[in-house]
Amino acid sequence: MRTTTVARMQSGDILPGLHPGYERNMATIESLLTIADLPDSPTPRLDAELLLAAALNKPRSYLRTWPERELDAAQQAQFSAFMQRRRNGEPVAYILGHQGFWSLDLEVAPHTLIPRPDTELLVETALELLPAGPLAVLDLGTGTGAIALALASERPAWQVTGVDRVEDAVALAERNRQRLTLGNACFLHSHWFSALVEQRYGLILSNPPYIRADDQHLEQGDVRFEPSSALVAGSDGLDDIRAIIRAAPDHLLSGGWLMLEHGFDQAEAVRRLLDAGGFVEVHSRRDLAGLDRISLGRFDRE
Ligand code: GLN
Hints:
alpha/beta; Helicase, Ruva Protein, domain 3; seven-stranded mixed beta sheet; two-stranded antiparallel ribbon; elongated; Release factor glutamine methyltransferase; DNA_methylase_N6_adenine_CS; EC 2.1.1.297; peptide chain release factor N(5)-glutamine methyltransferase activity
């Protein structure tokens, strides 16, 4: 560990055996990153860098540019408080209060799921399959607004509605929309389609809850801090996906697409539900890890 000794002179403050004043080790950026200890995190170095940059109120690149720079007492205290929270298991995104998704930086809060890179597959697929011209789009269970805002930012001609049954999520998504000044998105309080009686869309997509209630993963890692309302969907994890597939045809324009994220082992079951619901061109697509992560189909109205 590299430290720098700082002697602060204070008159009349002479302790037995010590140099007048007192000495204190001050830590540099580099030394703090070297000793940072996050045994339970899958990404300890990244986490420590993000938390240190936040404690300094600087971008992460600053750490590499100024490895010898020393933190003042307030910055050290802030960093150690952040690290303590992370050691207790709290996700970095909740500590920082924001998270990147697609090209956007989004405010996050504990009442919503933290947007994940896997979910960018829904955005990519929507951009690939649907024309860039005017289109009504619905994002069910929008949380931070991640999917809706990513699509709104890429397709100015699309009109994107995001709904959530958690009112705090709707308010959070709206704050994200305002900060990003995306006038072609809006957010509503609705449990799936409950507040959308007559509306129809050319694209409906969702990252709904899809974890089985007895899944051991719910007791491990970052997910413990996320709301179970955004994660858990009955004994087989498919309760919400079933509800969405059942109701979606009444809200799709003819030929409109329904795209759903699901668990790595649920693709076949979701395709079967889409087939049984009368959807066509049903298929699944793989995420960056090579796992079937979304399934989709379109609904032709005779
Ligand atoms: N992919 C998330 C996870 O496994 C779950 C997200 C969800 O249920 N929609 O942690």
